[in-house]
Amino acid sequence: MYLCDYHMHSHNSTDGQNSVMELCQRAVELGLKEVAITDHFEPVKGNEGYKQYNPKWYFIDVLKARVVFKYTLKIKLGIELGQPHLYSKYSIKLIEEYPYDYVLGSAHNLPGDVDLGTIDYSNADIKYYSKEYLRQLKKLAQWNQFDCIGHLDLPKRYAAVYGISISLMEYYEDVEEVLKILIRNGKGIEINTSGLRQHSKACLPSLDIVKLFKDLGGEVLTVGSDAHRADEVGEGIQEGIELAKAAGFKYITVFNNRKPEWKDNQYLNLK
Ligand SMILES: [Zn+2]
Ligand SMILES: [Zn+2]
């Protein structure tokens, strides 16, 4: 089976624990064929240029790893842009200046740099935050300068820490609107398997949203572990592929130079 992991962070991200080389070594040990290293560009007000991320160091790391793993692993140049629709000028400058293969667009923060991961969900107005998050996703989708949206039902990840389950499908029309914009623009979503090893014990997004994406005509779908350590690389990828199959997909998407390619069902050994 052609296994690829399209979401992981090296120590080029402030929260990444291992080098690009170590992530790739782990991927090879697991028998993965392809990875995208998607380090964070996560600007906040006052640090719009986000000095913590140095694209030159990142590119050098990946190009070195490509030499070492030339015959064993395809290593794609990726990036995860945090709320790029709110920091558009800086985000566009970065992806125009550097030749990434794959760009993830994620909404981690609400306007005003409210980090979805720091909200006390036990005392929060869940409906307000869910609707506000979906409003941001719509703006992100309209911004359209990415390839896939990352972990589409992110509030689920953080609310689960408080034992609270959030299903964005309660706001079906908002979810549908976001997905339709993506599909119209030829853009995709990812199945982020990090939730399987966290409190929610489910991929992000869940099957209902992936299935709706498929039913509406969505074609671009990646799978990624969102590993922040080498020992998390590849975690849940098989389950992610099973979820894709359950939603009706017969392939997984990979990217070269920002262009999607579809690995067909024979290639993936899907039936
Ligand atoms: Zn993220
Ligand atoms: Zn990530």
Tell me about this structure.
The chain is an alpha/beta fold and 271 residues long. The chain has one domain: Alpha-Beta Barrel (TIM Barrel), CATH 3.20.20.140. The chain contains 9 helices and 11 strands. Strand 3 (74-82), helix 3 (88-97) and strand 4 form a beta-alpha-beta unit. Helix 4 (126-143) packs parallel to helix 6 (172-184). The chain starts with a strand and ends with a helix. The model has no long low-confidence stretch (mean pLDDT 95).
* Ligand inventory: zinc ion
Q: Assess the beta-strand content as a share of residues.
A: 15-25%
Strand and helix order: EHEHEHEEEHEHHEHEHEEH
Q: In DSSP terms, counting alpha (H) and pi (I) runs of 4 or more, how many helices?
A: 9
CATH C-level label: Alpha Beta
Mean pLDDT: 95
Q: What's the number of extended β-strand segments?
A: 11
Spell out the blueprint of helices and strands.
Blueprint: E1 4-5, H1 20-30, E2 34-41, H2 55-68, E3 74-82, H3 88-97, E4 102-106, E5 109-110, E6 114-115, H4 126-143, E7 148-149, H5 155-159, H6 172-184, E8 188-192, H7 207-215, E9 221-224, H8 237-246, E10 252-256, E11 259-263, H9 265-268
Parallel strand pairs: 1-2, 2-3, 3-4, 4-7, 7-8, 8-9
Antiparallel strand pairs: 5-6, 10-11
Bound molecules: zinc ion (2 copies).
List keywords for this structure.
271 residues; TIM Barrel; 7-stranded parallel β-sheet; 18% strand; binds zinc ion
